[in-house]
Amino acid sequence: xxxxxxxxxGIIIRRKQLPNGDIVITLISENGKWRAIAKKGKLLGGNLxxxxxxxxxxxxxxxxxxxxxxxxxxxxxxxxLPQLADPAVYPYAxxxxxxxxxxxxDVHLGENIHSYLASGLRGLAQHSDxxxxxxxxxxxxxxxxxxxxxxxxxxxxxxxxTGLMFDIAAxxxxxxxxxxxxxxxxxxxxxxxxxxxxxxxxxxxxxxxxRNLHWVLLSRYISFHVTALxxxxxxxxxxxxxx
Length: 243
Ligand SMILES: [Zn+2]
Description:
Order of helices and strands: EEEEEHHHEEEHHHH
CATH topology of the largest domain: de novo design (two linked rop proteins)
Bound molecules: zinc ion
Largest sheet: 5 strands, mixed, barrel
Number of strands: 8
Oligomer: single chain
Number of helices: 7
CATH architecture of the largest domain: Up-down Bundle
Mean pLDDT: 90
Number of domains: 2
Low-confidence stretches: 239-243
Distance between the termini: 63 Å
CATH superfamily of the largest domain: Recombination protein O, C-terminal domain
Radius of gyration: 20 Å
CATH class of the largest domain: Mainly Alpha
């Protein structure tokens, strides 16, 4: 049987180096999520550095049989955003990549989630306020996964009059009667609504206030509705003192 090579393109959202030096990567592309392995010393025409987190790559690979991980034989770098390696930006890129990874466990979200991640990473690299980009794009990734918070009606009883309490478990704002959750202020509530309904570019026209509150809300929402993210735990700047 002859070896059949194939090509695959995508953004590297996870990278794990094994004790023997081999590297397992997870790519997200328009066609979904995909894992492959690069064997140390066996990568032709490329080096393992090209297989870095957040790189947009095209890999050539083959698979001996269906059960094996695809084996990468060549890597071509389609695009790298060197700014993402900046220690002031990297933690935010890690959040978007890890969130994308967790949102696509056993679910095919494909094209949209890939393009939102790509524009989020570009935004992080280019914008002077990467923290705001990370907050906005994390919510937009959740939205693409069908996990938008409910903001227009009470998340618990459906009443159309809503207050300022955000109930994480119920998945959104509650009314003054149900009145459960984390207390937002009018500005933070308006910003959350803008994040869900306007473009990233539009939201970035005004600096986001209450960063701490935004991080608390986002991290608790993700922990409850998706899973706890290592990257959010690493972002130690939020101290949860508002709750
Ligand atoms: Zn209610």
